[in-house]
Amino acid sequence: MKVTRKQEKIVQRTLEGWRQEGVIDAAEQQRLQQHLSVQLFDWQRMSRYAFWVALACVIIAIGSLVADEYLLALLFNFGYATRAIILAIIAIAFYAWGFQRQKRTPGKRYSNEAIVFLGVLFTALSLSQVGMALDNGSGNVAPLFLLGCAIYGVMGYLARSGLIWLFCLLALGSFFGSSTGYASGWGAYWLGMNYPIRFVLFGAVLLAACYLLKTPLQQRNLFNVSKAMGLLYLFIALWILSIFGNYDVDIWQSVRQIELLHWSLLFALAAVACIWLSLKTDDGMLRGFGLTFLGINLYTRYFELFWDGTNKVIFFLLLAISLTLVGRYAEKIWRIGEGR
What we know:
By secondary structure, the chain is an all-alpha fold. It contains 15 helices and two strands.
């Protein structure tokens, strides 16, 4: 069995613990250790990083192509509708290739996901050309996001692809934001709510829908992605809300800090509730989100309340001490887990 150095240490420690507890004897421990083969270089991680960098380069190249009007006209000297069809055909080709490879060679996970991601990228480019072809000057881009959400949703659900489903949920959030923005005339408020409050509600509804549809989503391997996106929408919106409140940006600078306190408390309560639920259900994702955003909340309040009134030397010394204490506590928990 090929393992990394880190995995070898974990297995060795486990075997030693079993020997000391009498689960296996020394001969059995030695026999099992002989089946371990240390992989000196983590080629799996190297493969993942290489594909990430390659995709980033592709995105930069396509962005440069779109920005270069001469080159774009040279390669795509067509109307918007024709460009949209060509890009859609390219996207379909990438989807077909990626799904076929997933069935034939499921072990080539990163290259398969990279090919599918190219299909996602060309779908977005095709939709952008559709938008330009249908543009009537109204500025209503919400239907395009809804169309993208529908395409990604169907493709992701049928293919059991968390990557495509992720873009479906991103398009859904973009549709919600742009549709409410258009309905409000791109003003600060829609039904008395600014953008952060809208997305707090959006994240909460998405989380509720995720748990209501837990069984079909789990069957398609889409539940964790849906839950993570719901939590992300919710907590990022709560964080922004705790800073700006339900105020327009122009008014916010004249607002006293005490008037935003209830939003900070709501943010903290949501994080604590997330941690409490994680302890009851042993859910690592809930625990991670709760602890991370509780820390973000505390440090945001720290900067807001003490930045102006504290000497900068003392401020950063206190910040360093607090981070050191957090680091020591995390190290203690890690060492306890390692010992177990």
